[in-house]
Design brief:
It is built from nine helices and ten strands. The protein is 34% helix and 20% strand. The chain is globular, with a radius of gyration of 19 Å. With 297 residues, it is an alpha+beta fold. Helix 5 (111-125) crosses helix 6 (153-166) and helix 8 (208-220) runs parallel beside helix 9 (229-236). The strands form three sheets. A four-stranded antiparallel beta sheet has the order 1-2-4-3. Strand 9 and strand 10 (274-277) form a beta hairpin.
């Protein structure tokens, strides 16, 4: 049975065009079979466990959780079931390398579908981050932004137009070159300041990684970079003072911008030491790549 075309399946399409790949197996044992993969940073485990898997299971077909360890650790879902792969292709996911992408027409024709699609794209392949405003002496990271990139200019242009249609002002940044010759020029879309507020009001997010950054910024007026999901939860619970990351004697001070790096964070008041990897860079997938510099219905 073919899946219904609604806001939830549109969100799945946004996820899949953002951080997923639908490819044909070339190995001798499985030659010709389709395989779907979608992976993110290991910090997104809660997002995949509690939201993404159940969404796919209900609307597309049962998928498996995958956890790759090692240098390029990742966490996500995959499936080689014909039902899952064919349903995704029916909804508009191309098979093979993702070069020139488009938002499927059935999504563009409906505002609710479009909202779900945009949410899925930014939740998997977008970033929420705060930068410094050097006009302020405290130099905290007070300027919130969102961004997303693709090698497909047409795709970024359609996302920009869709955001504008939904009431979220945005900018398309001039393409820039990738050092890796395997990838084309990168086209970037950016949402700044008050427009990020509009994004979360109109479109929202299901990814705790994005939600907690926005919530910390909303509550305190800034969000330190290089914090983990657990640390941001503790900031929101009042267990960590976010200004701690700006203390001069703190080796984990927030003196540089995201994306993150491996850090050890010591917490005040005899709080236990948190040791977590905080890189926000997505790991590479099999198939084509749409890369992100690193935010409910």
């Amino acid at each position: 049975m073919k899946p219904n075309k609604n806001e939830k399946t549109a969100e799945i399409v946004g996820m899949s065009l953002g951080d997923g790949s639908l490819t044909i197996r070339n190995d001798k044992k499985n030659k010709g079979l389709l395989r779907f993969q979608m992976r993110g940073h290991v910090e997104e485990r809660i997002y995949y466990d509690q939201y993404v898997k159940s969404l796919f299971d209900k609307h597309i077909g049962v998928v498996q959780i995958t956890h790759y360890k090692g240098k390029n650790a990742s966490y996500g879902i995959c499936s080689e079931k014909n039902e899952v792969c064919r349903n995704l292709h029916y909804l508009g996911i191309p098979i093979g390398v993702k070069k020139e992408l488009q938002i499927p027409s059935w999504i563009k024709q409906n505002t609710h579908h479009l909202r779900g699609f945009i949410r899925g794209f930014f939740d998997t392949d977008g970033s929420v981050f705060c930068g410094k405003d050097y006009n302020y002496p405290e130099k905290k990271h007070i300027k919130i932004r969102m961004s997303g990139v693709s090698i497909s200019f047409q795709f970024i242009k359609e996302i920009s137009q869709s955001l504008s249609h939904l009431g979220v002002h945005n900018l398309v940044i001039k393409p820039y070159k990738k050092n890796d010759p395997r990838f084309g020029d990168i086209n970037k879309i950016q949402i700044d300041g008050p427009n990020v507020v509009n994004y979360f009001k109109i479109i929202g997010s299901h990814n705790p990684k994005h939600i907690t950054k926005y919530q910390v910024w909303t509550k305190f007026g800034f969000c330190p970079p290089h914090t983990t999901l657990k640390q941001r939860d503790m900031i929101l619970e009042g267990k960590i003072d976010p200004t701690f990351y700006y203390e001069k004697n703190n080796k984990q001070n927030a003196g540089v911008a995201e994306p993150g790096q491996m850090r050890k964070s010591t917490v005040k008041n005899n709080m236990e030491r948190l040791v977590e990897e905080t890189s926000q860079k997505p790991c590479p997938l099999v198939g084509a790549r749409v890369r992100i510099t690193s935010p409910a219905s």
